[in-house]
Every structure is written in C-alpha cells, then in structure tokens.
C-alpha cells in the first residue's frame, strides 16, 4: 500500500510500458478490437493445443503464461488504439459495445464456474473443456477491463459505476479468480491492485491514489506545460533584451 501511495503514477507508467504497448494506428475501430478481444476468438487454437498436450501441469502453466503475455500485449494495443482517438464521443462509442460484450462473457463464465468444484481440479483443467474455456475468458477479460478503466477512466466509469452486476463481476473476477490464478505474474497482479483502487473495491483504499489518465489531470498537466513553456520563452526574451542593452554603443565624435 505504501508503494501505491508514493508511486501511483510510476506504477501506471511501469505497467503500460512493461506490457509493451505498440504505437496505435490511425483509424482504429471496431474491426481492430475484434482481433484482440478474447470473446470473439474464443482461444480455440490455444485450447486445442493445451488439451492435446501431454505436458505436466507445471509445464502447462508455463506454456499458458507465455500465451497470456502475448494476449496482454494485444489487449493493451487495442486500448492504446482507442486512447489515441482524440474525440471523446468516438472513444465512448467504441468502448460501450466492448464493455457490454465483456460483461456478458464474464457473466456466462461465472454461471458455469459457480457450478463446478474448482478446488478439486488442477490449475489448468484440460480434461474439462467448458471449464477451461470459462477460466481463460475470466482471466483474460478481467485483465482487459483493467486496461480499459485505467487508461480510459472517464468513459469507463460512466459505464461501470453504479452498476451492481458489473461491480460484482469485477470484484469476483479479481479477488476470487485472478489474484490466485497461476498464470497471473507480478506485473499482472499489480494491475489488479490498481483496478481495485480505481474502482474502490478494496477495504484498504489509498487516499493518495489517483489516475494520471483522467481527462481533468491530463488537461491540468497540459496547462502546466503551456505555462512553463511561456515562462521559458519570456525568460529567453528577457535575456536577449538584457544582452542587447549591455552591448557598447558607438559614439559620434566631432572632428
């Protein structure tokens, strides 16, 4: 908690940098999002690879961790693509259907997982395809929600705050499913802790936490940068005038 208090901005930069978000392309839209969102593709190839693998659970976990890192990079790229869109309403129009489908997917997965005894299963239950699929979608879409609310807080809070079902799904996804997941590494768990602070779904809310990607904070920083640049320009102009005033003047001598 002390780390959050002292370094919330650093953690945001660390997370988005370490996950490796590529440069967003212009014209990013719905078709781009469909390539990155878990619910559209269903991880069919990955599931088939895992199910047919004779590897031990330890090696299966290592294999899926690698897949998860790749998926996280793609998801961060999707969010960066939306972030680069300057128009607020265009961002919102992209985020709304994404969140609607994301929460439908989480709810379907939750309904299935509540019926099974996860404690009696291995971490990667390759013998139960339906349960494995539900787990993968919860792990990936909970992380994707984190990308969205941390990077695009103004739009996402409108679509999340005050929605009891959505709030319960994210709290369940983070606390019960992802924090204990073997495929979540330290950097991914740091993101979850930031999401808990952002959504206030923790009993240990850090009073010094803030999100540097809110529109108000970014506008404030832009204004400070503008004022700083203006002050530098004025100082340079003042020094130029001072140097000109110090130059020796030619005196007219009568012959």
Give a structural overview.
- The chain is mainly α and 255 residues long.
- The protein has eleven helices and no strands.
- Helix 5 runs parallel beside helix 7 (129-151) and helix 6 (88-113) packs antiparallel against helix 7.
- The longest helix is centred in the last third of the chain and has 32 residues, at 215-246.
- The chain starts with a helix and ends in a 9-residue tail after the last helix.
- The relative contact order is 0.13.
Short description:
This protein is mostly helical. It is 71% helix and 0% strand. The protein is built from 11 helices and no strands.
Mean of all residue-level pLDDT scores: 81
Largest sheet: none
Query: Strand pairing plus helix content: what structural class?
Result: mainly alpha
Tell me the number of strands.
0
Estimated share of beta-strand residues = under 5%
Q: Show unreliable segments.
A: 1-7, 17-26
> Over all CA atoms, what is the radius of gyration?
25 Å
Order of helices and strands: HHHHHHHHHHH
Q: Report the principal-axis shape.
A: elongated
Instruction: Tell me the helix content.
Output: over 70%
| Total count of helical runs of at least 4 residues | 11
Distance between the termini: 84 Å
